[in-house]
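Shipment paperwork, digital attachment
Item: protein structure file
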Amino acid sequence: MTDAPGTVNSIVPPSALRHSEAMKPLAAQLLAALFLAGCAPLSLYYRPGVSVTRMQADTTRCEVRALRQAPVATQIRQSPPSFVPARRICNGQGECWVRPGHWIEGPIYTVDANEGLRARDAALHGREGL
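Attachment content:
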């Protein structure tokens, strides 16, 4: 059991713990692909014979109509509180004390209750205009 420091408590030989050389280029390619995917556009609009300017104007018109149909409805919300249980804390001299449990308030945040409705309205009327 004490033959060498590297073999103590190990049933896997050290050579098997390292990644193979073939995995390194694959991991780099995968990482590069994920990085480039973050730069790609989320959606593509195409209609033969229609300019990009016209498409942008139609999209803006559709978003404005959706905003009129489902205006911003900001709501203030709070996450539920969480309880931190009591802890026993001891120092180097063996003196111990108990830190009592306590509640931590949940964070306050805002949401737009109509955001999903606006998106559905814009998508619905955007298809009708095509």
